[in-house]
Specification:
The chain contains seven helices and ten strands. The protein is an alpha/beta fold. It starts with 6 loop residues before the first strand and ends in a 7-residue tail after the last helix.
Length: 264
């Protein structure tokens, strides 16, 4: 079942570093409510992607505990979707085949609670996602025949076909041109609301953090010990990008991060 209330994610005093004497996180605590959208923002090397990998179960803290829906994270969780910057598509598979890949892997293992949810029925309709993401006319094409935006839409279709309740995205739009990036940002925001997803997106771009994050987690140079949380209460306003509040929050974050020029 998908979470609807309460804490979905809890980090309790976690410590993690790739080397013993250089922790990236030291006794770090953080909580995320079900259905929230968070943007993780900070300079290169601050631990943004590392935090995402910890949430995904791809890394394990040396101390402390990470739990999702009250269950400790010790390995990748079937209900967690992860979308990476390089799309992760199989070059020899068509759009349709790539979109079906996760479901085919799940059907191989069955609802074992490790590779697929115990309640899984594999009744997700890949064709629905191809249509929702504007990919029907490209279904028989291969990744090399697609634009960057179309490849990212295929990666999103593959992930959402698996019906996650938590979606983790690691700088998913950074390689795209500005119009495509803005279009996919808007699409991601709409899909999150339609399917009651908890969304956590890592970005280095201040403007992207402000347009997608209901709350912004600002990380600094390691070690990160106390979460710096910036609320973004106006995010649901129509045409938010064109409001004074949007510009003021971007300027505030730019000052906090010591940047002089906007991210492009």
């Amino acid at each position: 079942m998908k979470s609807t209330t309460g804490h979905m994610i809890e980090l309790k005093s976690i410590t993690f570093g790739y080397t013993q004497n250089a922790p990236i996180f030291a006794h770090f605590a953080w909580e995320v409510l079900a259905g929230e959208t968070w943007a993780i923002l900070g300079p290169s090397g601050c631990g943004k992607t590392t935090l995402l990998y910890l949430l995904a179960g791809l890394e394990t803290p040396q101390a402390g505990r990470i739990s999702i829906d009250g269950v400790g994270v010790a390995r990748p969780r079937p209900q967690t979707g992860l979308i990476l910057q390089d799309f992760g598509l199989l070059p020899w598979a068509t759009v349709s085949q790539n979109a079906e890949l996760g479901l085919k892997i799940r059907s191989f293992y069955g609802p074992d609670g490790k590779h697929a949810p115990k309640y899984s029925t594999n009744n997700s309709d890949v064709n629905y996602w191809l249509e929702r993401l504007g990919l029907v006319e490209h279904a028989s094409k291969y990744p090399a025949q697609l634009s960057g935006g179309q490849r990212q839409r295929t990666a999103i279709a593959r992930t959402l076909a698996m019906q996650p309740d938590l979606l983790l995205m690691d700088e998913p739009f950074s390689s795209l041109d500005a119009p495509t990036r803005e279009s996919l940002q808007q699409l991601t925001f709409e899909l999150r609301k339609e399917h009651n997803l908890t969304l956590i997106i890592v970005t280095h771009a201040i403007e992207e953090a402000v347009v997608l994050g209901q709350k912004i987690l600002l990380l600094e140079e390691p070690p990160n010990s106390a979460p710096q949380i910036i609320p973004n209460p106006d995010i649901n306003r129509p045409e938010y990008r064109n409001t004074k509040e949007y510009l003021e929050l971007c300027q505030f974050l730019r000052a906090r991060m010591g940047e002089d020029e906007p991210n492009v």
